[in-house]
Amino acid sequence: MTAPILSLRNVNKSFGPIDVLHDINIDLRAGEVLCLLGDNGAGKSTVIRLLSGVHKPSSGEILMDGKPVTFASPRDASEHGIATVHQFGGTFPLMSIGRSFFVGVEPTKGWGPFKVYDRKKANAIAVKAVREFGITRIEDGDRLVGGLSGGERQSLAIARAVHFGARVLILDEPTAALGVKQATHVLRIVNEAKRRGLAVIFITHQVMHAMAVGDHFAVLIRGAVAADFKKGEKTREEITDLMAGGASMASLEAEIEGYMASHDGHPPPVAAH
Amino acid sequence: MIRNSSVGGLLRRPEAGAFLGLVAVLLFFAVFGGLTFLKPAGMSSWLNVAANLGIIAIPVGLLMIAGELDISVGAMVPFGAMTTAVISGHYGLPIWLGIAVALGFGVLVGLINGYMVIRTAVPSLIVTLGSLFAVQGIVLGLTVLITKSTSVALTVEGPAKAVFGDFILGGQLQTSVGWWLAFTACYIFFVHFSRYGNWIFAMGGDKVSARNAGIPTDRMTILLFVLSSTSASFVGMSQAILYNSAQVAGGQSFIFNAIISVVVGGVLLTGGFGSVVGIFFGTITFAIVNQGIYYTDFDRNWSSLIIGVLLLGAVLMNNTFRKMALSYAPKKGAK
Ligand SMILES: Nc1ncnc2c1ncn2[C@@H]1O[C@H](COP(=O)(O)OP(=O)(O)OP(=O)(O)O)[C@@H](O)[C@H]1O
Ligand SMILES: [Mg+2]
């Protein structure tokens, strides 16, 4: 097994008196999709905000290629190769595909103070990058981003991250609010990113979507990793139970609470696999 | 920049509504006022109004594209005029010093506005509402304190007069028309051709994403506030030189007039969409309505009604065109 690109080691996060994450340990490897699952408020978004430089851990560390790192800002994290795509985020609805693809790194042509934005080049590269991800319906880089469907926008943002050299791709509920077809589209693109060797963190509430792309699953319950397993180790029913709170969910919660009460607030260690 | 010369392509551009509005207004006044307002005397009357307004409206519009608003320009016009008049008229110091200090105050107020907007979470409308009143107070207080009057005379001759505040081309057109055209050309390059324009649109579209993409949003915001308040100060300064006097009041009309020109020009009030050419057309449209009424038989009191209707019409039209731009996809007949 390859060494992880990105790991969380005993990470805790509290906002003032509210403890949101407890002793999180997660490993992320290149060419692997990690599905982060859990009920509303379990702390999934908080985990990715730590990884994308929005928040800093209260304790514990983030390792990149085995070395501890701290991200001063979202920009710092993206300079480390971590790209985060929020639902509809990172794209500008009233800008053209070419212009929004190159925001901040616009290609220019010309000389000295008269350098002009190279629209043709930007459009050509942007359209090519999205088409390589299978979105062949996009042909014109002058189209406005807001005119694309939700799935196409998501794909554009992913293509952009990959084009600019991201190693880790974080997708927070990229398939929420998408229809079946559009969601399939995004899932295909996630697989394509994985094939290109990126490490992907994929958050979803939909078991089917998780099972379609996931290699590795981590389920958060009340801010702690309640289960950590590989593809094929659990059935769909078991995963659904974990996510949606069936019988096994109830027993897990009771177990965790009991353990935390007797181990001054620490959650039980996740069984090694 | 002309990416698509078909009718549909032109209609999807931000300035389409402004252009049609301009045509409508021209037709209206041609029918009701004859063509006198297109003869040299008539033309210079609205070109002068458009020039002074346009120099301020473009940077105000760029701020709006970037998602900000600056209404302190209403106080910066008299501030620029009064600074020039007090220094070079009341104290009799060289006119170049008056000009430099007037523009310097423009830069300073812009820096303060910009800095307050990026440091606090207060919306720029409120921040600049504060500086509007603060600057008005400073102008009135200091002028009365220094000169014991609310109006100050100055006489300017020589190159400063010829460059900033004179009549050109037979004595009816103000020099500011030349400045307006030159500034507009620079802004078109800056916004639509250089890469920096992209940053302004991105900031107005989604500021957080723009910052994460590596755009120095704070510096751009400050720069835009400096541009707008310095431009307003510039207009005040050149008006004082042109009319050989400065008043503490006046200038508030620039606030609404600039915003009307910008919105008629197709800029989205919530940011992220617009064009310099659109603001240019919007300013001319406003100036023609403002002055054209004098060439008709209508009482001039009706001009506000026309402006109001024009504004609503332009906004509705711009909304339609923006929807067209959003839903536009190339025909797929080829394959
Ligand atoms: N800045 C904050 N200050 C205080 N509490 C916070 C903050 N951010 C998140 N929380 C709390 O942390 C918990 C986890 O939130 P988070 O957004 O990570 O959940 P999530 O798993 O992403 O949920 P969802 O599936 O609904 O998106 C919530 O109870 C939330 O109220
Ligand atoms: Mg969330």
UniProtKB/TrEMBL annotation, chain A:
Pfam families: ABC_tran (PF00005). Gene3D superfamilies: P-loop containing nucleotide triphosphate hydrolases (3.40.50.300). Residues 6-247 form the ABC transporter domain. Signal peptide: none annotated. The keyword Glycosyltransferase does not apply. The keyword Transferase does not apply. Keywords: ATP-binding, Nucleotide-binding. One of its GO terms (molecular function) is ATP hydrolysis activity. It comes from the Bacteria. InterPro entries: AAA+_ATPase, ABC_carbohydrate_import_ATPase, ABC_transporter-like_ATP-bd, P-loop_NTPase. Coiled coil: none annotated. This is Sugar ABC transporter ATP-binding protein. It comes from Fuscibacter oryzae.
TrEMBL record, chain B:
It is found in: Cell membrane. GO terms for cellular component: plasma membrane. Part of the binding-protein-dependent transport system for D-xylose. Probably responsible for the translocation of the substrate across the membrane. It comes from the Bacteria. One of its GO terms (molecular function) is transmembrane transporter activity. The chain crosses the membrane at residues 16-38, 45-66, 95-118, 125-146, 179-201, 222-243, 249-269, 302-321. PANTHER family: ABC TRANSPORTER PERMEASE PROTEIN YPHD-RELATED-RELATED (PTHR32196), XYLOSE TRANSPORT SYSTEM PERMEASE PROTEIN XYLH (PTHR32196:SF32). InterPro entries: ABC_transp_permease. Keywords: Cell inner membrane, Cell membrane, Membrane, Sugar transport, Transmembrane, Transmembrane helix, Transport. It is a multi-pass membrane protein. This is Xylose transport system permease protein XylH.
